[in-house]
């Protein structure tokens, strides 16, 4: 077994057939720095051509798997006048996501702890996604004036649960991740080290690097029972979620939710979940909500590469702040000054025109468009992991 220095931001352990990558910024909740993204891209590209690499394990050190991209660093560069830094980070994250989603080697993502934003993107596109009792999933970007990028997977969740998660930024635990398909397995955290040892020791028995049934059978040995959903889980509200979040606009969704409140109050059956859902929508950036809903809806009919190209366009427009400066304001209020009181402009949904949203989705000039890495001769499963 080989490994690198413990102060590296990505720890690498290599056995004969398994490559284990550990995100190593525990004090920053393993948020992805430019160095980490570049290193992960380099490693995944190398393992594509490594005939001995039959399996990749991706995990995080500390209490987080990965809390997303390093938005605080982006904001610091904004303040220093380096406006291209954020676009560069997003470009590299999207390329890494595509590389992972189309990789020919199976990946086991161990999502033990916080998994948010870009942290979800580098894990959920792996073939095997292991949640635990410590797992916390969320896509909270709308509250920061951004939008849930790399949200291709939100479009593939049951019913209109993707719209609900993307718009509200709701947190899910490990049991909920398994129930809605974000996770493929649930393993108690106390058994993770045994699981890893089993994968490493028995990988040699796999007939090929794509022996998915063999890998799944190993994980199944530690996945003993279906965890029970909390009685307050949003997954118990799928009838209301599908009814309200299927509406064509954010305004219609809010109206439908408020109508549910009125109906339930009239029946003396008030619902705390409804009030919380409405509050989350009203606190978020109106522009982000509009972008998010349209992005998820477009994702339903687009291939992975089309989604990533579209999301890069949106991210560039959002970061440049020519249509709305909500992202910079969100970073200031939530991450920098931490007054938790962002002043969104436009301040309400009715002030946002369709033309403004169209501009956020418009093509970039010439060479600015996202250029994804060329992929060829991929196994079928590499393009169908969700």
From TrEMBL:
EC number: 3.1.2.4
Biological or metabolic pathway of the protein: Amino-acid degradation; L-valine degradation
Catalytic activities: 3-hydroxy-2-methylpropanoyl-CoA + H2O = 3-hydroxy-2-methylpropanoate + CoA + H(+)
InterPro entries for the chain: ClpP/crotonase-like_dom_sf, ECH_dom, HIBYL-CoA-H
Record keywords, A-Z: Hydrolase
Taxonomic superkingdom: Eukaryota
Residue span(s) of domain Enoyl-CoA hydratase/isomerase: 18-361
Keyword Hydrolase applies: yes
EC top class named in words: hydrolase
PANTHER family documented for this protein: 3-HYDROXYISOBUTYRYL-COA HYDROLASE, MITOCHONDRIAL, 3-HYDROXYISOBUTYRYL-COA HYDROLASE-RELATED
Family: Belongs to the enoyl-CoA hydratase/isomerase family.
Biological function: Hydrolyzes 3-hydroxyisobutyryl-CoA (HIBYL-CoA), a saline catabolite. Has high activity toward isobutyryl-CoA. Could be an isobutyryl-CoA dehydrogenase that functions in valine catabolism.
Protein name: 3-hydroxyisobutyryl-CoA hydrolase
Species whose genome carries this gene: Prunus mume (Japanese apricot)
Taxonomy of the source species: Eukaryota, Viridiplantae, Streptophyta, Embryophyta, Tracheophyta
């Amino acid at each position: 077994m080989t490994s690198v220095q413990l102060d590296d931001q990505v720890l690498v352990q290599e056995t004969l057939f398994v490559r284990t990558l550990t995100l190593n910024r525990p004090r920053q909740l393993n948020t992805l720095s430019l160095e980490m993204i570049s290193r992960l891209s380099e490693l995944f590209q190398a393992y594509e051509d490594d005939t001995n690499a039959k399996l990749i394990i991706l995990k995080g050190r500390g209490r987080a798997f990965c809390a997303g991209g390093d938005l605080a660093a982006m904001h610091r560069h904004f303040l220093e006048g380096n406006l291209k830094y954020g676009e560069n980070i997003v470009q590299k994250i999207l390329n890494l996501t595509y590389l992972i989603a189309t990789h020919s080697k199976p990946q086991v993502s161990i999502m033990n702890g916080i998994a948010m934003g870009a942290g979800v993107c580098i894990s959920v596109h792996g073939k095997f996604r292991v949640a635990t009792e410590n797992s916390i999933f969320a896509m909270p970007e709308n509250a920061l004036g951004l939008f849930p990028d790399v949200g291709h997977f939100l479009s593939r969740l049951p019913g209109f649960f993707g719209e609900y998660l993307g718009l509200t930024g709701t947190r899910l635990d490990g049991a909920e991740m398994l129930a809605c398909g974000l996770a493929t397995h649930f393993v108690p955290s106390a058994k993770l080290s045994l699981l890893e040892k089993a994968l490493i020791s028995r990988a040699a028995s796999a007939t090929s690097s794509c022996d998915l049934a063999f890998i799944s059978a190993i994980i199944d040995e530690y996945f003993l029972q279906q965890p029970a959903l909390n009685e307050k889980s949003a997954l118990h509200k799928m009838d209301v979620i599908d009814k309200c979040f299927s509406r064509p606009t954010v305004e219609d969704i809010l109206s439908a939710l408020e109508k549910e409140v009125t109906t339930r109050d009239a029946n003396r059956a008030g619902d705390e979940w409804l009030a919380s859902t409405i509050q989350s929508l009203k606190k978020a950036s109106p522009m982000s909500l509009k972008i998010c809903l349209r992005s998820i809806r477009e994702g339903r009919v687009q291939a992975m590469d089309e989604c990533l190209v579209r999301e890069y366009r949106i991210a560039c427009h959002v970061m440049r702040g020519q249509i709305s400066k909500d992202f910079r304001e969100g970073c200031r209020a939530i991450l920098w000054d931490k007054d938790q009181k962002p002043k969104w402009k436009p301040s309400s949904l009715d002030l946002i025109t369709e033309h403004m949203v169209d501009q956020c989705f418009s093509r970039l000039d010439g060479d600015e468009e996202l250029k994804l890495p060329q992929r060829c001769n991929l196994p079928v499963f590499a393009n169908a992991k969700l």
